[in-house]
Write a structure and sequence with these properties.
heterodimer; A: 391 residues; alpha/beta; six-stranded mixed β-sheet; four-stranded parallel β-sheet; 15 helices; B: 271 residues; TIM Barrel; nine-stranded parallel β-sheet; globular
Chain lengths: 391, 271
């Protein structure tokens, strides 16, 4: 490997030897193609003409009036397939094509990443297999159907907690035996190097566009940028461009589930008892676990945030105090979901609603000309069944 | 307590290969697991490879995963693991290797883990999700505690990596084969043979082949291919799972299975 992909002491490569050759090949290809003119133009072409980039930065007229500052949304929900996941799926699929792989495998929780991979697979002619926890298949029927229509094979995972964590285990196991012709298209800034760095590269288009757009609209940079954090790819995607602008506050919002004390949540940073630095799925980062290091099962109303570990760069950004991390509970997220739907005519994904919930809390304390940008990572169509049950 | 080296040397003199058995500590529970391992020792295993149960074992197939779940559900944890090994150590002097995922080592503290392992009578440690690139700290701790560091090499590991791994591996090298899943015997012999040759070029360490070794003829063919031992895991764990309701039957089946596998390592023309 050219690098171990460390973010301070976090990140790295903790995988069985059987996966090392594939990671070496992936790193090599990524470093080569990253600045390759043809690759960039192919990628940009697909992002613009197929996925729908650039996405708008929408000013929230009504919320801004009500909450007393300027609130903007970066509209990743308007992308093809309904979330930021497509940025990464197209990027990696194109990379896999160049390496000469014939098959894509992926894990999915809510199904958004699975749908994005199935889409990229269909468009770029791959055989696509998506691992999905049996429990998630049950609660995300619509996305399962989508993936099937797109030609992907959805493989139910019956092991462990039958959710995202177990789907990743299964995808890694598949890859161990299939690395010669298969690319594992991981969905977030997680896993062993080069994934966190590579996925940041594909998602950082969000922040680049945002910077340009906010300067056009306001003539200055925002005061606060908020994003939800599961693995944290949409957050890294929008934060990355602003890391050096130290005056901007960056806030990541984890899933508070039923509350931290309940133990039923996915707040790796906020739970002082269960959240500690550990090693899971190939990377060193904050992980919810017991005292011996057995991984704790997580819970959130938002399947996309329902995961035991956070991307390693987030652990680093928190350590150096560049990004602050908070959480929103299920209840707060659902409330924000309703507010955004009614006030602005935008139904957000339950994941993104966590970011909205925190932003609205802070908005009240901001000055009249203060500017908040919320990364609206996805749309809420997929969540309607669940919301119907809750309401 | 015998060292790996003593065991491999002696077997070599007798023209035998080593039979290494893998089981998960605490599967299906502490007490039965202890009885199973004693039976395995009685049946003639040369080396014990014992796994710490982990909630997310990415290098393992469904059989071992299920064993991990059984052990964890019955209360196994890292404190009890070391008590368990002490009990095994009181029963036998054959080498004991530990197989763990890194998080369990990391959460205990790398130094403490290796010290506890030494005190319990462990000979070697293999960390399944620890490639050579990340292993400086564990190699240091292993040396400090006179514990061997076992690494894996897979059929796709290139020569550059083989060299680096071989230079750092002690005890033996765990050679990963693909056999078992599809059971393609002819292709097994061919790929194992060339892999072993490739690794031999870089090291005189004993080479033991694992992953999918489940039948006496597999044992014969990996030893014929020039390896020093065969590692059998899932097949034993399968016997545990299939006879979970009848302990006597389970123990007897495991005993005769291990005995048969051990016999396959003997009396062979290794040239």
């Amino acid at each position: 490997m050219k690098s171990l992909g460390k973010f301070g002491d976090f990140g790295g490569i903790f995988v069985p030897e059987t996966l090392m050759p594939a990671l070496e090949q992936l790193e090599r290809s990524f470093l080569k193609l990253k600045y390759d003119e043809k690759f960039s133009s192919d990628l940009n072409g697909l992002l613009r003409k197929y996925a729908g980039r650039p996405t708008p930065l929408s000013f929230c007229e009504n919320l801004s009036k009500e909450f007393g500052c300027k609130i903007y949304l970066k509209r990743e929900d308007l992308l093809h397939t309904g979330a930021h996941k497509i940025n990464n799926a197209i990027g990696q699929a194109l990379l896999a094509k160049r390496i000469g792989k014939k098959r894509l495998i992926a894990e999915t929780g809510a199904g958004q990443h699975g749908v994005a991979v199935a889409t990229a697979g269909a468009r770029l002619n791959f055989k696509t297999d998506v691992y999905m926890g049996a429990k998630d298949i049950e609660r995300q029927k619509l996305n399962v159907l989508r993936m099937k229509l797109l030609g992907a094979n959805v493989i139910p995972v019956e092991s462990g907690s039958k959710t995202l964590k177990d789907a990743i285990n299964e995808a890694l196991r598949d890859w161990t035996g299939s690395i010669k012709d298969t690319h594992y298209l991981l969905g977030s800034v997680l896993g062993p190097h080069p994934y966190p760095t590579m996925i940041k590269f594909f998602q950082s288009v969000i922040g680049k566009e945002t910077k340009k757009q906010i300067l056009e609209a306001e003539g200055k940079l925002p005061d606060l940028i908020v994003a939800c954090v599961g693995g944290g790819s949409n957050a890294i995607g929008i934060f990355n461009e602003f890391i050096k602008d130290k005056s901007i506050k960056l806030a990541g919002v984890e899933a508070g589930g039923s509350g931290i004390e309940s133990g039923k949540h996915a707040s790796r940073f906020s739970d002082k008892k269960l959240g500690r630095c550990g090693v899971v799925h190939g990377t060193k980062t904050y992980v919810l676990q017991d005292k011996y290091g057995q991984i704790h099962n997580t819970y959130s109303v938002a399947a996309g945030l329902d995961y035991c570990a956070v991307g390693p760069e987030h652990s680093f950004l928190r350590q150096i105090k560049r990004v602050e991390y908070y959480y929103a509970t299920d209840k707060e997220a659902v409330e924000a979901f309703k507010i955004l739907s009614r006030q602005e005519g935008i139904i957000p994904a339950l994941e993104s609603a966590h970011a909205v919930a925190y932003a609205l809390k802070i908005a009240k304390t901001m000055k009249r000309d203060g500017i908040i940008v919320i990364n609206l990572s996805g749309r809420g169509d997929k969540d309607l069944d669940q919301i119907e049950e809750i309401l | 307590m015998k060292s790996y080296n003593e065991v491999f040397e002696k077997l070599k003199r007798n023209n035998e290969g080593a039979l290494i058995t893998f089981t998960v500590i605490g599967d299906p529970n502490y007490k039965t697991s202890l009885e199973i391992i004693k039976k395995i020792v009685d049946a003639g295993a040369d080396i014990l490879e014992l796994g710490l149960p982990f909630s997310d074992p990415i290098a393992d197939g469904p059989t071992i995963q299920a064993a991990d779940v059984r052990a964890l559900n019955n209360g196994m944890n890292t404190d009890k693991v070391f008590e368990f090994i002490k009990e095994i150590r009181n029963y036998t002097d054959i080498p004991i290797g530990l197989l763990s995922y890194f998080n369990l080592v990391y959460q205990r503290g790398i130094e403490k883990f290796y010290k506890d392992a030494k005190n319990a009578g462990v000979n070697g440690i293999l960390i399944a999700d620890m490639p050579i690139e990340e292993s400086n700290k564990i190699i240091t701790e292993a040396k400090n505690n006179k514990i061997e560091t076992v690494f894996m090499i897979s059929p796709l590991t290139n020569n550059y990596r083989i060299k680096r791994i071989a230079e750092n591996a002690t005890g033996f090298v765990y050679v990963v084969s693909r056999l078992g899943v599809t059971g393609a015997k002819s292709s097994l012999e061919k790929s194992i043979l060339s892999l072993i040759k490739r690794i031999r070029h870089f090291t005189n360490n004993p080479l033991c082949v694992g992953f999918g070794v489940s039948k006496p003829e597999h044992v014969k063919s990996v030893i014929k291919a020039g390896s020093d031992g065969a590692i059998v895991g899932s097949a034993i764990v399968d016997l545990i799972a299939k006879n979970i309701n009848s302990k006597d039957k389970m123990l007897s089946k495991i005993y005769y299975y291990v005995k048969g596998m051990k016999e396959a390592t003997q009396l062979m023309n290794r040239k």
